[in-house]
Design a protein that fits this description.
The complex is a heterodimer of chains A (531) and B (224). With 531 residues, chain A is of the alpha+beta class. In chain A, 27% of the residues lie in helices and 14% in strands. Among the domains of chain A are: 207-460, no CATH class; 467-508, no CATH class. Chain A has helices at 2-25, 33-41, 65-75, 79-83, 87-90, 122-125, 150-153, 178-183, 190-197, 235-238, 264-267, 275-280, 286-290, 419-422, 425-435, 494-530; strands spanning 93-97, 101-105, 241-242, 245-246, 300-305, 319-321, 327-330, 334-339, 345-349, 353-355, 369-370, 372-374, 384-398, 403-404, 444-454. In chain A, the strands form four sheets. In chain A, strands 5, 6, 7, 8, 9, 11, 13, 14 and 15 form a nine-stranded mixed beta sheet that branches. In chain A, strands 1-2 form a two-stranded antiparallel sheet. Chain B is mostly helical and 224 residues long. Chain B has a single domain (4-211), classed as Up-down Bundle (Fumarate Reductase Cytochrome B subunit). Chain B is 56% helix and 4% strand. In chain B, strands 1-2 form a two-stranded antiparallel ribbon. The chains are: A alpha+beta (531), B mainly alpha (224). At the A-B interface, helix 1, helix 12 and helix 16 of A face helix 2 and helix 5 of B.
């Protein structure tokens, strides 16, 4: 009996508690039920219950796009009303912004540092409006027949809006087969969204950097969700709509923490097996680690310098291309810097944003003007670190009135002051400001501006996530710019570190010299004893 | 000439505790300073993992050690005394070079000289608790937000991290000096052997005092 006492005591006193503690500390497996359901349901594509080719109302040779909308709305009653309340049609949202009150802001009236703004340029810009005929301030937002259903719901891929056509499609001989288009309408495909969201800013991937045509054909290495060799998801699989109001926000134009789309909606807020990674999700957005780089296929515009526009060669405008075929200078727009495989910059963001309005004064003592301010800081409990593309620009402002200037860029004919036609800044700025009905002193210069565009797409496979050391490092880490908090591995208290090292050194020297003295004394004693 | 007699000074658990604590503190310091970005060896993620595991190991060990100290009465070994304190300091500063005898006699019931008593008491009631508490806060510290995760609301990691780092430097300095002081026993290796086997040769006359009640410093003669 006695010989078992020791092992039993050992087991009870040491092994059992260790086992219990290990079991208690064991981390539960993440709950993937939501994701599994999404995965299971995804391949079941929605099939229309009706065959649109059988509808009499669509058996017409349409010559006027408004008639197509009327035909749609004759069955889909109420949908027009829905769209007339959506940002895709109104290009503005009602939003409360602290310090400004209730605002009505959007692409309709905000200044940016790409083409500076749509006002006075509607004829061209409205190629991306889900409507027909927005060519100037007289456009009727209350007329449901001004809605363009097809730009989103065409599933043939043949529907095209005309360039400089105020949102009207190409019709007639050069136009597509509208019977085929109306016969096969359905849920928007990624191509539909892409016509505007991939080519915003004047070309593929110019604006966002993480949204571009390559997403339609690339593999999982570019985007795990949309990769053709993976789930091959469509935009609307995540960007679901409720009565034509889409989920998802772009904070170049949005202001409030509503209607957002979150990775957590499918992946939950505790998706990792390791709890230390889940803890990160309290202060770090998923995108921060899971989108190590963007613009993985084609370059994106990082810098746009309007001040060099209007240069001429032999009395004419010209273009310069880089070796990849990107325009790096054009007389109508100025100088560009393009980049590929861009590491995002990082900001604290709580889901709310403010915007620099065209009526706001510019502070010329600042090194740059923020056109949109994404709010957030470490101490704000709603803030997380998010990746952003920072688009730097140099754009015209009124040196006397100290406001940014809306330039008139486009017109269908010369002599109307459009910069892209006449290559004349003075006239362009004058006409632009006249259009928005704001004072212009006639004196202008160019000022540095920045826009902050959250990076949410081009999520990388998990093998390529940002590693710990890319942030937890003393110098040049990804988060080197976010200095309002203590991060292990990056931050330290200089005094404690120097004092600590000094203490270690002194301890070592103290021990070493004590040992040397002892050794010396012992030898001396031995020699004396031997004599 | 002083006579020496073998005595069983360090019990089985005591040695188990001592060496495991030594190993864990070594692992903690090594991984801790990697997390501090002082060097790269295991990689940040692994260093964090090993550091946290070793921390739990040390905490469990400490719980057992506390239980052991109180049930065996060994905690009394750490009651500080000023008796012989000066003599002990003088021994390390001067006497040791003249091969003078240790001013404090080591016995089974009073293993520690007055300097050791002070230093180990400091470790037990100040430095190790500070490291354990700051370490636990470091581990369970949550940013002020709920999510699905249990929280301790503290606004900032900075103070916790700096205290933990400062404590690490102090502990490491202790270890350095402690390692050297191993050699200052009766012979160069007698202390080390004692902590490995439990047995040490103690001065005979003192060993006889075991029968008397334990008072710090009781029965110890000052000698030059």
């Amino acid at each position: 009996m006695n010989k078992f006492t020791k092992p039993i005591t050992f087991f009870l006193a040491i092994v059992a508690p260790l086992l219990i503690v290990t079991l208690v500390l064991r981390q539960p497996a993440p709950d993937n039920s939501l994701l599994d359901r999404v995965r299971a349901e995804h391949p079941e594509r929605h099939k229309s219950a009706v065959d649109h080719s059988k509808f009499e109302v669509l058996q017409k040779d349409f010559t006027n796009p408004h008639e197509i909308t009327a035909a749609c709305l004759s069955c889909h009653t109420g949908r027009g009303e829905e769209l007339m309340h959506s940002a895709h049609f109104n290009w503005e949202r009602e939003a409360f912004i602290p310090g400004r009150g209730v605002t009505y802001l959007g692409k309709k009236n905000l200044i940016n540092n790409f083409c500076t703004g749509v006002q006075s340029n509607e004829g061209s810009c409205m190629k991306c409006h889900a409507g027909y005929g927005w060519s100037d301030t007289t456009f009727d937002f209350k007329n449901p027949y001004n809605i363009d259903c097809l730009v989103c719901h065409d599933n043939t891929g043949t529907y095209k809006k005309a360039s400089g056509g105020s949102g009207y499609p190409v019709m007639g001989h050069n136009g597509p087969d509208f019977k085929a288009i109306t016969a096969s309408v359905g849920f928007p495909k990624s191509e539909n969204c892409g016509t505007c969201h991939f080519e915003g800013g004047g070309g593929n991937n110019v604006k966002h950097g993480d949204l571009e045509l390559a997403l339609l054909t690339a593999g999982r290495d570019v985007d795990v969700h949309m990769g053709v060799d993976g789930m091959n998801m469509e935009c609307v699989d995540c960007h679901t709509a409720d009565n034509h109001v889409m989920k998802g926000r772009y904070y170049g134009v949005s202001s409030t923490n509503t209607q957002r789309l979150h990775c957590e909606d499918c992946h939950t807020s505790v998706p990792h097996t390791e709890s230390i990674l889940n803890e990160h999700s309290i202060k770090v957005a998923c995108q921060t680690c899971h989108i190590p780089v963007y613009a993985k296929v084609n370059a994106t515009k990082m810098y746009w310098d309007w001040s060099t526009a209007t240069r001429k060669k032999d009395g004419k405008g010209y273009e310069t291309l880089d070796k990849d075929g990107n325009v790096v200078y054009t007389s109508i727009k100025g100088d560009f810097v393009w980049e590929k495989f861009v590491k995002p910059e990082y900001l604290w963001f709580n889901g709310t944003a403010d915007h620099h309005l065209i009526t706001d004064k510019v502070d010329t003592t600042l090194t740059f003007i923020r056109l949109n301010t994404m709010n957030g800081e470490y101490s704000d409990r709603n803030s997380k670190i998010v990746p952003v593309k920072v688009h730097r620009g140099k754009q015209p402002y009124d040196t006397h009135n100290l406001t940014l200037i809306q330039a008139k860029l486009w017109d269908s004919e010369p002599g109307k002051g459009a910069l892209w036609v006449d290559l004349d800044w003075e006239k362009s700025l004058e006409e632009g400001m006249k259009y928005v009905n704001l004072p212009y002193s006639g004196h202008y210069d160019f000022i540095d501006t920045r826009m902050y565009l959250p990076v949410n797409h081009m999520v990388s496979p998990k093998t390529e996530v940002v590693t710990c050391r890319e942030c937890h490092t003393r110098t040049n880490g990804r988060l080197a710019g976010l200095t309002d908090f203590y991060m292990p591995g990056r931050d330290r208290n200089r005094f404690v570190d120097i004092a600590g090292q000094l203490m270690l050194l002194l301890s070592f020297l103290g021990a070493a010299s004590h040992a040397a003295l002892r050794y010396h004394a012992a030898r001396k004693r031995n020699t004396t004893a031997n004599h | 000439m002083t006579k020496y007699k073998k005595a069983y000074v360090y019990k089985g658990f005591e040695r188990f505790w001592h060496w495991n604590q030594a190993l864990l503190i070594f692992i903690l310091a090594f991984t801790g300073f990697e997390i501090h970005s002082s060097y790269t060896f295991l990689g940040f993620a692994n260093a964090v993992k090993v550091h946290n595991l070793a921390a739990w190991g040390l905490i469990i060990l400490i719980v057992f050690a506390i239980f052991w100290h109180f049930t065996t009465g060994e905690w009394k070994q750490y009651i500080p005394t000023t008796k012989n304190l000066k003599a002990q300091a003088e021994f390390y500063l001067f006497g040791i070079f003249r091969n003078a005898p240790h001013p404090t006699k080591k016995t089974v019931i009073s293993k520690l000289n007055p300097l050791q008593r002070l230093v180990y008491l400091g470790l037990k009631i100040l430095f190790i608790p500070v490291m354990v508490v700051s370490g636990l806060l470091y581990m369970f510290y949550r940013y002020p937000q709920g999510n699905n995760i249990e929280i301790i609301n503290i606004g900032n990691l900075e103070v916790i991290a700096i205290v933990h780092t400062a404590g690490a430097f102090i502990l490491l300095s202790f270890v350095l000096v402690h390692l050297y002081l191993i050699t200052t026993g009766h012979t160069l290796t007698s202390n080390l052997k004692a902590m490995i086997t439990g047995w040490e040769e103690l001065e005979e006359e003192v060993a006889e005092e075991e029968k008397k009640p334990a008072f710090p410093g009781k029965g110890e003669k000052e000698q030059g």
